[in-house]
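Lab intake sheet, docking and co-folding queue.

SAMPLE TYPE: protein with bound small molecule
LIGAND NAME: nicotinamide-adenine-dinucleotide
LIGAND FORMAT: SMILES
REQUESTED OUTPUT: full 3D complex as structure tokens
PRIORITY: normal
SUBMITTED BY: R.K., bench team

The fields below were copied directly from the construct record.
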Amino acid sequence: MQTVVVTGGAGFIGSHLCKHLIEDGYRVICVDNLLTGNEKNIAALLENPHFEFIDFDVTRPEAELAEKLPESVDFLFHLASPASPNHHSKLSYHALPMETMMVNTNGTLNMLRLAEKYHARFLFSSTSETYGDPLEHPQKETYRGNVSTTGPRSVYDEAKRFGETLVAYFVREKGVDARIARIFNTYGPNMQKEDRRMIVDFINQALTGAPITIFGDGKQTRSLIYVSDMVDGLIKFMMAENLKGEIINLGSEFEFTVQEYAEMVKKLTDSQSEIIFSEELPKDDPLRRRADITKAKALLSWEPKVTLEEGLKKLIEYFKST
Ligand SMILES: NC(=O)c1ccc[n+]([C@@H]2O[C@H](COP(=O)([O-])OP(=O)(O)OC[C@H]3O[C@@H](n4cnc5c(N)ncnc54)[C@H](O)[C@@H]3O)[C@@H](O)[C@H]2O)c1
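RESULT FIELD (auto-filled):
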């Protein structure tokens, strides 16, 4: 049985990834310090003999983690990082700036060193935020981005960019088989109300009858991918042969305005909430974002399958039941 380590495995995407890997027949070790994740995301997995949870901060020296790991590790997914951009959330990277910078730089370095030690294949969960407020649309992997090095989002965007630089170094200089997935906005069950990402806020406002609050004029666009499609893409990318050093976008090709998302949520929840436009768009908030997934389709034979309506219904049910 092959062993997979998932850092950030108690978080939103990581918990789904752990579950799918176990179903695929791997032994899974989830490494997480529960900074923005939640043990309830992995509660059902803890009963499984092929699953183990290690409470550990990956910015600590990797030798401390190696003491807790088995003798061989075959694959290492590095997902640990705060991910919410909402400046009102205590779980966002704005509220956790130092933790975010450190986990994506020091943490990535430590995990790459572990991958080198174990001869494990490594996948770094980077982000579409490496493209910043893009001047090219949709964004291909070759686009180098329009990112502020010092703006409020830089603690996340630039840390991820340096994380990518570390990955490229370990591929070039240390022979590690490492890959970079640029993840675009993902949604689904196990998202936390408190991290207040756009779709989470819209659904919870709609379900409680509170005003559905849009930042800016609502004409900015987002493309959202359902979590099962994301996890499928991440696993295919990791398990494919001959992709050492590759960067691949994983995201949805469908783009809607923020106002359209608000209207869809209102309709699907049958809510009486009114839609209001509350504040200026936060500084450096991207106006347009959509993945070009030509490369993923070609190299991984992958594309998203879940429609927005199906996915939103599942997330709405999840929030109704929690
Ligand atoms: N969800 C998205 O839309 C999205 C988009 C782009 C990129 N990503 C990336 O995907 C990854 C997972 O995102 P998510 O949405 O599941 O976020 P999440 O906050 O739900 O999960 C991240 C997990 O990492 C853990 N973590 C944070 N710092 C840690 C540390 N120092 N040591 C150990 N564990 C630590 C958290 O406790 C949490 O469980 C992140 O790297 C994020 O940057 C996510």
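REVIEWER NOTE: The longest strand covers residues 121-127.
SIGN-OFF: pending second check by T.M.
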